[in-house]
Amino acid sequence: MPVTAGVRNSPYDLGMTAAVQDQPGAGRGAAPVVRNVCGMDTTVYAPGSSSPAVRARSLTKTYGKGEATVRALDGVDVDFEQGRFTAIMGPSGSGKSTLMHLLAGLDSATSGQAFLGSTEITGLNDKALTRLRRDRVGFVFQQFNLLPMFTAEQNITLPVELAGGTADKAWFDTLVDTLGLAGRLTHRPGELSGGQQQRVAIARALIAQPDVVFADEPTGNLDSRSGAEVLSFLRRSVRELGRTIIMVTHDPSAAAYADRAVLIADGRIAGDISDPTPESAMAGLDALRTLEPSVATAPGTGV
User: pTM for this structure?
Assistant: First the structure.
């Protein structure tokens, strides 16, 4: 019996509710493949086909009341695999940042569920959420958010020390080597370039060996060369260090560094590209931009 693509049957699904083509290994955890109306091969991760690091079920976020209600997320169902680099792509106001904030426990859902591994984070109280974010989640932000009075090394180890622990020396050395920071550990943020500061931020996000790292437009404040270096380091952290990264971006070139790109429009999952290229990511984004928006961006939400 064919499985259908894991997207909503709506004007936003880009025609991706076609039956999945039979592939070698189907039924043994392999990801089925479909072809959408843009002519791109896309991978759809059916619930239960693998062990996801993060997943959402009917995840919904609304702002306001009555006629002023804004549905920033509209019943999202999506899985993110362990040990993979996934980009969430969509135009401005699509809901991509809102989705990341709910998956990371930075905001509360109106309804639905979000899971980190087997833990339902939408059911946790504030204290438990704080502990989960500290111990199991890493963050990389567009603004770096480094403490200016601390050296690069102190910034990297800060999350572990705040939790009352000590950074693992072997893992610290691995991160420093992978991210090319050996000659910059005694420098303060003001003595580092933007690309170097973001690499420090990536090391800080990874130092506690979290289950998943969320990166929100991590190259938004960088020039093209520094941005490419940061994206390469993110990809290396997945392929060489076995990390799981979920990145929000509107840049097709950035999405091309990922193993997979999830497309979102109007608060709904609209497509899913396996091994994206700049061209396929741009084609998907262009298709999303042709859709008539019915949801406005909520003021101050960054969706």
Answer: 0.78
